[in-house]
Amino acid sequence: MSESKSAGEIRLIRLDRIEVLNPRDRGSRVFDEIVRNIKAIGLKKPICVTPRFDANGAEKYLLICGEGRLKAYQALGEEEIPALVVEVTDEDAFIMSLAENIARRQHHPLELLSGIRQLVDKGYTFKSIAEKTGLAQSYVKEICNLLRSGEERLIVAVERGAIPINVAVTIAGAGDNDKAVQAALQGAYESGALRGRQLVLARRVIDKRQRLGRAAGRPSTTKHSQVSTTTVIRTYQDEVKRQTALVRKAAFSQQKLLLVVGALRQLLSDENFVNLLRAESLTTMPKYLAERVWPNGSHV
């Protein structure tokens, strides 16, 4: 791919001549802030576009970066916007747009995934992706490995600071083996990689990964999202998985309780053990447990 492009020039371009090349979602709060800033102090940085021609030979422009500013101008009722016009190929324009979205300091984690995935699909190496996005090559490599495993939920957690990238990789390597995943968390805690609130957040992520799967869905930016049959079915299936997991946990706890009750009954039938408990003034136990050990009401 050619990296060469002209230095560009600033022009006033009609909004209806600009086509968004790589559209993305934006929360209403963030968008409203962009609109207020532009209304108060004007456009501090022009958008970036590259010229093309439509089927009728009329000049149009592909938006490379500045979608929020473009939509803010539309919301304010403007007809033209200052734009830096550069001459680049379609592929260069697309890659520049992806890289700009990924490199933003406040990008959404799922935008990072989408951008890196598209760059990988186009055949870019870890090194070239790192150069284009400003991310560390090792970080890009680990993200790509997690993407290949379908671990979107873990990647989002990494981007939000809930789990370090090396811990996410270890958890992904454990697959769906709950004991291996818990061992990975324990190892991260003992090594100091997870501490305090971060450990709590990591456990929440793991719980969601077990109940809802590895893929992460983008939160809706509207107050009322449309409900479809697919959404209802997926919600039902997720709830069934959650309830099934709760039943399994309850059954496991019941089995452990039965083992404890059986062991206590056997120990309390030993007069020497009972005398030892009395000598240590250990003659009571929780009511819930006592009712099961002594169903007829007898006690030590």
UniProtKB/TrEMBL annotation:
One of its GO terms (molecular function) is DNA binding. GO terms for biological process: chromosome segregation. GO terms for cellular component: chromosome. Residues 11-102 form the ParB-like N-terminal domain. PANTHER family: CHROMOSOME-PARTITIONING PROTEIN PARB-RELATED. NCBIfam families: parB_part. Belongs to the ParB family. This is ParB family chromosome partitioning protein. It comes from Paraburkholderia youngii.
